[in-house]
Amino acid sequence: MRNSSIAVCLMALCSATVFAQNSARSFVHTREKSAIRVPAPDAPTGLAKIFGNLGPKTAAYDPLNGWFVGGPNSGLDEFMGLAFTPKANAHVTQVQVAITYYSGDDQVNLSIYSDAGGVPGTLIDGPVTVTNLPAGGACCALAIANFPSGVAVLARTQYWVVADTPLSGTGADFLGVWEQVVKPQPFAFGNGVWSPAAVPAGAVYGTIP
Fold first, then answer.
1. Which of 57, 102, 132, 158 stands 20 to 30 A from 140 (CA)?
2. Which pLDDT band, with edges at 50, 70 and 90, does 29 fall under?
3. 65 Cβ partners below 8 Å, 6+ apart?
4. Tens of pLDDT along 157-203?
5. Quick check: is 171 in a domain?
């Protein structure tokens, strides 16, 4: 991880935690571009839900509010992570997250990290580069990353889905938004001034022995 400051915000919502680099500037409010909503994809056949906070298919997330994800060449250089804690030992094979595209290269990296005291620690698997992302300000398509070999995760242990970009080259100018859950439980973080925030939306699927 980079040596820049990371603000950690904790909340009790589906065992989820969010971290944001330079988070005092991360939250963004937009306008929905279309009243026509594309239903979110179905849960993958044959896989169990390990974690999820997505809403119904036509309201899977809030397309009006979210957190910036931007590469170092986007002008923001902000990455995001969503924590999840499996209830049982499992293998993660797919991640679905509400990351939408605004500008730059149309791609973002998704990875699985261990936890290190409430923030992402060591890279376990990835990055998986996801392209052709949903358009910003619309709902409810998702960015989907597959981990075919299966990422082993332990029960009652926190892990992270991290969205970031390469440090340089293709993808370093990506700018998008990780949209928040439909009905967030508010919490606040402070960096001189208190600011409201909400957890980004996503789901983790895999196999449970």
1. 158
2. low
3. 27, 28, 29, 30, 179, 180, 198
4. 999 999 999 999 999 999 999 999 987 665 555 545 565 557 899 99
5. yes
- Location of structure tokens 């499996």: 86
DSSP per residue, 120-158: EEEEEEEEEEEESPPBTT--S--EEEEEEEEEEE-TT--
**3-state SS, residue 25:** helix
Mean pLDDT, residues 92-113 taken together: 97
Amino acid present at 36: I
Give the domain extent around 106: 15-30+38-184+200-207
pTM equals 0.82
Task: Report which of 201, 155, 204 is spatially closest to residue 51, judged by C-alpha positions.
Answer: 204
8 A C-beta contact, residue 61 and residue 54: yes
Please name which of 112, 207, 129 lies closest in space to residue 172, comparing C-alpha atoms: 129
| Number of structural domains found in the chain | 1
**Tens digit of each residue's pLDDT (9 = 90 or more) over 74-89:** 998 999 999 999 999 9
What is the length of the chain? 209
Q: For residues 203 and 94, what is the distance between their CA atoms, to the nearest angstrom?
A: 9
Nearest CA-CA partner of 150 in 171, 170, 124, 175:
124
